[in-house]
Structures are given as C-alpha cells and as structure tokens.
Amino acid sequence: MSDSALETGPRTVVIQLQPEDLALAQRLHFWQHVRSRGGLIRLAIVWVVATAVFAGLLRLMGDKAVMPVVIFALIAPVAVLAFPYLITHLLGGVAARRTFRQQKTLHKPAKLTWNEQGVVMQSAYGDARIPWADLRKAREDQRVILLYESDRLYRLIPKRCLSATQLADIKSCLGAVPPG
Q1: Where are the bilayer-spanning segments (predicted)?
Q2: What is the pLDDT at residue 152?
Q3: Which CATH architecture has domain 3-17+107-176?
Q4: How far apart are CA 25 and CA 52, in angstroms?
C-alpha cells in the first residue's frame, strides 16, 4: 500500500491497532452477548440444568433437604457469569497480546473511510466495502466501536483514532445499521 493510500480526510482515518484494543473489543463483545436475548436464554438454561444436576446429586446421596438446592440456585447465576467475566477481564489482556503477536494482519495500519452508504476498510491485505445495511449490528462503549458482520465476526474501530468530529459523524452514519 502506498503512502498516499494512508492519507486522511474528514471521513477517513488510519487505524493502527494495539493489543489493548483487542482486549477492549473482547470485553465489549462479552457484555453485549451477555445482555442479548440469546445470551440470557443460554445463561438461564445453564442455571436450570446446573440446579437440577445439583438437586439430583443430593437426592442420590440421600439428602432430601431443600435449602442446599435453594442456596445453590441463588449462587449459581453469579458463578455462571463470574467464570467468563474473569476470563475476559483478567486474562483477556494476555489473550489479546498473544493474538496480536500471532496475527500479523493486525500489525499493519488500515484506512477506514465511511459515508452515508457504508464503510470501507483498506489495508495491505485487501479491501472490505460494507454497506451499513449489511452489518448485523453495531455496538460501542467509551473506547471502541464494533461493527458486526455476524453474531461473532466484528470490525474494530478504536475511538482513540477518531477526532471528536469524526466520532460524531460516524455515529450519525451508524443509525443506518440494523438494531440487531
């Protein structure tokens, strides 16, 4: 890619990812998934199955007390959420640094351009032109924007790469993304 391909304009920015960007994206992805309808349904199923298994094991051991099952049922949701939370938030930085080291495509700068029709991402590895309407959803927090092409595949835009004007502009364009 030539240097002229990396020039920026009002709706163009060069993104140079860092390992921390990957960790932040992973956290946002985790939280948006946990709060989604499917994520809540999966958590509820795990909770019901775990409680039933615990009650069944107590019954097999001859314990007919109800209180241990009630206590387990109250504690289980916390445990079900705590394990992935700990992996994502405590070990996420380690995994992000390892992924960044392994995936050489993340080391090269990429040019992001957008307009009312969609977004274009260009790098030394190729171009992706995606109309806003073809995105599944978009999520953001204080530091990153994720543009989802499917439930698990997203494009990462670190907000640190955008000026305040560019951030407001891209947010206005995100209105064309389906609510997902």
Answers
A1: 40-58, 70-96
A2: 87
A3: Roll (2.30)
A4: 35
Helix (H) or strand (E) holding 147: strand 144-148
Cβ partners under 8 Å of residue 92, min gap 6: 23, 26, 27
Cα→Cα distances 122→14, 62, 109, 145, Å: 9, 64, 9, 17
pLDDT tens readout for residues 50-100? 888 888 888 888 877 788 888 888 888 888 788 888 888 888 889 899 999
Phi-psi label, residue 62: left if phi above 0, alpha if psi -120 to 50, beta otherwise: left
What single string gives the DSSP state of each residue in 13-28? EEE---HHHHHHHHHH
Identify the residue whose tokens are 């445990």.
79
How far is 65 from 36, CA to CA, in rounded Å?
35
Q: Is the dihedral of CA 30, 36, 42, 48 positive or negative?
A: positive
Residue 141 CA to its chain's centroid (Å): 10
Q: Please say whether the beta carbons of 167 and 143 come within 8 A.
A: no
The predicted pLDDT at position 143 comes to 97
CA distance 99 to 162: 24
C-alpha to C-alpha distance for 121 and 111, rounded to whole angstroms = 6
Q: What are the domain boundaries of the chain?
A: 3-17+107-176, 25-97
